[in-house]
């Protein structure tokens, strides 16, 4: 980017070339299309600047590289000298600078016959009689090849790569003191492309999708998942080539379906750098923004330092907005600035993210003959939910939560940092089952299994995959047998098996779906354990590889265990072990380690208690949760093991979903009310499960 550069080098000062040009006039927000939405994408593809001009002058074709090796006059500083009979220069010599000690350049230099290196070790590829060879040139040495070597025939130099140096890297540590440490530089492949980026979470940067597309001018599409080419990001320093900052590989891409945006997950989180928050409000024409990036300038192919400058927003469209330099001297956005942030200044060295650079006419940029200088940024102000949903696709513990409201069933995710996604209508993803009366969930690895009682009275099953895709609802009765008068469901995973318990006709039934997808037939638990009267609700947990079950009958809780051999223990009266409570109306449980954590709501939901069946088979006394949950009336409870802790959700009579965690050290977090973005209707049941 041909922008103002702010440098920070200990005990040194430096200046940068600033591009001069004429700013694009700011368009008014009158509904006309953005003037720059059709400009070229501005990723850096490594094409050598002004290659045709160099070829006309020298006879050597310089094709592409990473900016670390550049053609220079042999009368000035240089680190590589090439002799070739096929070039037009004096004494058949061509010189190249490699000041940073790293770099590569693909070329086509006919008649090359010697290379001399100075303080750089170089590996070069040559072609001799259609056979390609690789030659090593240690630092401060010279060697002949082709007609001056053993081949005794003409050679074509194809590429050069700096592999080592006797010089040190530039001195100093790059320290970001301007509040822009969240700005990063992406390198895709072997410098196949470079772009800019912005850290929006310790584990995620956002950039331009076009940086990763094969041919974005034809189809700006990118597959979700690992990038095709090894990709790294450097963050937290304005000079990427100095020490300091944070460097990580990119492990996962989540492209936006409609905009030139991609979320990219860091393999190594940048925990020491403050992410940039999203802007509050919609960008408006005339608004002053700061644009930041690592792209080209008027005179530099790969600048040593990050650049930033003031821009003014022009026409704002639903997907993005035009940008024009506020000062003509600050000029335009150049190749390599794609993915750079367009920022609203919120305070001293503080910013919020309004957009991501996508396109520019690149007038005045190195290697460009264009005169137009406007740019276009993709909007992000309205994409907070998409960004959280993208973050939810990362590996790691998450709490997958269901809430039934009216006749709909919704799914949301609580991330490890405590943030929540919005809630998705599951029937819109997995198919219409005539509404949902109640549901249960169980996590198996990174997948979420949902078992729902449809408005048709049937039990249905679907799976949300780790990539966020949903399977279609399937009728469980077709494979496990049909139950009548189903009123409640519970589900839990043990290994790769899904255990489902259904309360139907006042009885408890159990089925199992194994890792291959095969279901066993529903079995009446009373047939193995004995009757306990009419069952109104039930809960399940996986504890030590066994299925533990609590069923409520006559307002009392009864407990049984199904061992790994499939045998059930006799019912035990929980009140006899944990103490007497009022009539139980809701129950949920989860296994943590060798313990079963049980939470109940009694007295029509007005009281809540917690107990533990310990690994040694003893029970803790019921403890009142009023000090933790407050004075609430609970309609439904959900409990889950998530990363060694108990997480609890509850729907309340005042139409809220609340959430609380019991840590391994027995302390409880404050209760929070979950924002139910996307949920409409009166809340009914809830369920929660952990996925990894």
Description:
- The chain is mainly beta and 692 residues long.
- The chain is 6% helix and 43% strand.
- The strands form nine sheets. Strands 1, 2, 3, 4, 5, 6, 7, 8 and 9 form a nine-stranded antiparallel β-sheet that branches. It has a six-stranded antiparallel barrel with strand order 10-11-12-15-14-13.
- Strand 25 (436-444) and strand 26 form a beta hairpin.
- The longest helix has 8 residues, at 51-58.
- The two termini are 41 Å apart.
Low-confidence stretches: 4-30
Helix content: under 10%
- CATH homologous superfamily heading of the domain at 395-691: Kelch-type beta propeller
Instruction: Give the number of DSSP strands.
Output: 45
Whole-angstrom Rg: 32 Å
Q: State the helix count.
A: 7
**CATH top level assignment of the domain at 395-691:** Mainly Beta
Characterize the largest beta sheet: strand count, sense, and whether it forms a barrel.
9 strands, antiparallel
Shape: elongated
CATH architectural label of the domain at 395-691: 6 Propeller
> What portion of the residues fall into strands of 2 or more residues?
35-45%
Please identify the structural class as seen in this structure.
mainly beta
Q: What is the mean pLDDT?
A: 92
State the distance separating the first and last CA atoms: 41 Å
Instruction: Give the oligomeric state.
Output: single chain
CATH topology tier name of the domain at 395-691: Neuraminidase
Topology (elements, then pairings):
Blueprint: H1 51-58, E1 61-65, E2 70-72, E3 80-84, E4 93-97, E5 103-117, E6 120-128, E7 131-137, E8 142-144, E9 155-165, E10 183-188, E11 193-201, E12 204-207, E13 231-235, E14 246-255, E15 262-266, E16 288-293, E17 307-316, E18 320-325, E19 341-347, E20 350-360, E21 375-379, H2 384-391, E22 398-405, E23 408-414, E24 424-425, H3 426-430, E25 436-444, E26 447-454, E27 459-464, E28 474-475, H4 477-480, E29 486-494, E30 497-504, E31 507-513, E32 523-524, H5 525-529, E33 535-543, E34 546-553, E35 556-562, E36 572-573, H6 574-578, E37 584-592, E38 595-602, E39 607-613, E40 623-624, H7 626-629, E41 634-642, E42 645-652, E43 657-662, E44 672-673, E45 683-691
Antiparallel strand pairs: 1-5, 2-4, 3-4, 3-5, 5-8, 5-9, 6-7, 6-9, 10-11, 10-13, 11-12, 12-15, 13-14, 14-15, 16-17, 16-19, 17-18, 18-21, 19-20, 20-21, 22-23, 22-45, 23-24, 25-26, 26-27, 27-28, 29-30, 30-31, 31-32, 33-34, 34-35, 35-36, 37-38, 38-39, 39-40, 41-42, 42-43, 43-44
